[in-house]
Write a structure and sequence with these properties.
By secondary structure, this protein is of the alpha/beta class. About 35% of the residues lie in helices and about 10% in strands.
Length: about 525
Amino acid sequence: MTPLSRREFTASIIGAAAVGAKVGARVQSSPPGSGAITADALASLTLTEAAERVRTRTVSPTDLVNACLSRIAVYNPKVNAFITVSRDAALAKAKALDAEQRAGKLRGPLHGIPIAVKDNIDTAGLRTTAGSAVFDDRVPQGDAEVTRRLEAAGAIVIGKANLHEFAMGGTSATSYYGPVRNPWALERNPGGSSGGSAAAVAANLCFGALGTDTGGSIRTPASYCGVVGLKPTYGLVSIRGIIPLTLSLDHCGPLTRTVRDAALMLNVLAGYDRLDIASVEHPAEDYVAALDAPVSGFRLGIARGPFFDHLDADVARGVEDAFAVLGKLTRSMADTVLPPTSGIALRGESNAYHDEFIARMPDRYMIPTRRSLQNGATAKAADYVRARWKLDLLRRTIDDAFREVDLVVLPTRRRTPRTVDAAIKREEGDVPLNPELENTGAFNLYGIPAVSLPCGFTADGLPVGLMIAGPHFSESKVLALAHAFERATEWHSRQPALRPDSPVPPLAPTDERREDDL
């Protein structure tokens, strides 16, 4: 695929609207009795439902790709979830997978499923920018290991999702390709740094997405966009071929509309990668099969303390209601304490990657990212080594916190998202980057699995997220409890009220941006 410049990308989106109308018409004009549904209805299926329709041949991979392209043409200009849409390549791949489907030869559980890939994850022959002008024309020669695994399972990369530049923030407002917007409220940010991935899933532009998580970059967007986001145990999913932020904390995982969808993607993504220095060996598990394991014997810990400080009233109400549901599903619930994570600063790892680029082209970085890297350049090697020792000890002992409980529960986020204007103003000002991590960052330091899933809505109609976490390699238990909660509630079934005529709020001039939530 020929790389697009920023100007060409904008022009392609305008042109895509007409294409989308034709795509939608094709999906809707299938013969009666063929199992066809409208593009919007088809795109709203869960990943699991779409995969089952492919398996039973009631829809084809081309049908799924066309449905997503139709939605992208209409709604991507509103949410700005994609930097690059791989229309031609996706349709060509779908055509090949159609033939295999007709021959009864499915490549894997994701055969023909359109998936968005965060744009800091390498895709061979498809531009990978990390949301930065630094890499505006970067086209990798090879796939990241997670991309390879997805495609081996039959997935179709529908496009590259927008993100906070180099994943260095929690709002997705700082991106060379423009801010991502929250599908539930277009004036709000979707969280970050995997904001485009979460927005694409929430707006039904794809059936699942890959994100990365260094301090909450999967779980924060999942919470803000009302979807499911899983950060697995550190090293369970390969990060080779992903542009690093802080390699010692970087994780990769799925964003989906349901817990079952996340488990299905994890089945594909998990596995040892000898060439990834972060990868760890762990026996293969069937995370989908584990969803139906009983949770009635689980002992839950409510991680009180700082994780509950300064909660928004709507968030507090949503998580307390969730705890009431969980209390009926499990054996016991009691307050518990997790170890502190202060004094572990690993910022030098970002500079280790960026030193060459920021020395040659500092002006290609956006102001907040450049400032953060320049500040990190003063870190001392001895301080980094001491921090790394603390991290190793923390990860070696964190499972001790689960001697009396099986899993812990807490709010994913303590507050609801700022406006895009407020986020940009904050990030371009003197406030340090990454103040948004809140409850999520500790779990990257712990290196243990954590999932965010919807548990309610604010009075303004914004999603609230519940986080469930457990000791190392407890993904099966974490997902089983999340699945049980999902079945006992209906929050995951709600969808944003996006319409083709939904207006996109213009960005305010810099000196007029709102001060709310600063």
